[in-house]
Structure formats: C-alpha cells, structure tokens
Amino acid sequence: MLEETNNQTLARMFMGAKARIVRGARGFPIRDNAAMGHTKPTGMFMSLKSGRAMPWESFHELHLMWISEADTAVVRFLAQPLRLELFVRHRAKPIMYFPDIERGLAGGAVEIIEVKRSLDEVDRDPNYALKIERAKKAFRAEGFRFRIMTAEDHIDLQPRLANARTIVLDRFTKVPDIDKLRLGEALDAAGGSLAYGKATEVLSHRGDPRDHDARAKIHASVVRRTVSIDLKRRLTLDSPVTEVRNMRRLPRAA
Fold this sequence. Notes:
Helices cover 37% and strands 23% of the residues. The chain has helices spanning 2-15, 59-70, 120-123, 126-141, 151-155, 160-168, 177-189, 196-203, 212-223, and strands spanning 18-23, 43-47, 52-56, 74-79, 82-87, 95-97, 101-105, 110-116, 145-150, 193-195, 227-229, 240-243.
C-alpha cells in the first residue's frame, strides 16, 4: 500500500514537471565516463557515417549502431548526445535522463532512442517507467520522436543484424572516383537499381560477381549513402542495390 501511495505521489509530481535539454559540446557524448565502473561489456564504435567514435554500454547498443551505420534512412547518429532534466515540484534537484542514441533521418526527422533487452526492464520498475513516459512527452514537445527499441523486438533480428555487420566491416574501404562513376553510370543505365552480383561485377577488375574487394566498395558506398541495400532481406547475388536519392533535410517545425 505504501509503495502504491509513493508511486501515485511521484506520478502527480511528474505531471507538473518542466523539462530542459542539455547537449554535449560539439555533439560529443554528454556522459563520456558512463562506462566507468561497469562490469558489463562496454566499448567504442568508430562511425564513418557520423565521423566520430562513440561509447556503447551493451551489445544491444553496439548492434543498433551497426544497423544505423548501414541503414541509408539514417543520415547521422550520436551516442548519449544529451541530458534531459525534469524539474518536478517539491524536489530540489532535477531528475536526470540520458537517452542512449539520437538518430537524424532522411527528410529531417530526429528520433531519440532508449535501448533495452526487453520491455520487462522498463515495466518492472514503476518509477523508471514514469520517467520514461515523461521523457517521451518532453521530447515530443521539442519535435523529436521517442522510441524504446528492444533487442527482442527491434535490434537482434536476422538477417538484418548479420547484413548490417557485413556492411559495417567494410565501412572504411576506399571507393575511388572512377569506381563511383562506373557504378553510377551502371545504375543510371539500369533505371536506378542493379542486382548485388551485377553491381559487384561492375566494380570488379576481373568482372567477378563474387569479388570480395568489389563487394567491400559497395558496402562502403552503402555507409556513405550512395547506394542502398535492404537489410531486412537475406543478401544474395540477386538482392537489389539501389541508388540513394538524398532528400534535402527539412527544417524542424517550430
């Protein structure tokens, strides 16, 4: 009964909360020492797409970074980019919330993501669930989308995760201008889409649809958002490689 009363009191406090967003300098993580003292796996991921190294604090976060790096719908992403401060009545200090990842999408939308293994991690703690719900409202008021992405339902899904990892491993491969031109001309001649094997053949010096070096250039082009591959389908020689027509980023609505 006491716990229920405390939760009701906290809920009333959150309803009247005001919020402030504080960002890290130059887009760097605002909580760059978050991994200190953790016993769970942690590390850094170097993103070519975003042009910086970013910390991850679970394999689920790392996997989402792979997916974001390989998904041409994602223009840029940042890890731990901001701190949300929730000011509530009868509390001297604000309640802090650090989202895991922010992604800028083609077309201009921005989404804030909380990464969890499953929704049980949120549901089992009523106070945390209340904070997440209030954070969702605060971000939406700022024009951002807010999502909880779970490993079970959104991240560790095959073949998307395996495809993303394959592409990301080749992200630093150089793509000479002559290869960009050859692939672009082949895509134009084919109406904007080529089979994966055919695109590989175009970039292969020996015309081999299984040429590893040529495939690596295609994968690097996906990360650079020149071409796109559907991550949700098993990658075969017949998989479409599609030209990306970059959309102009739209200004956020006031």
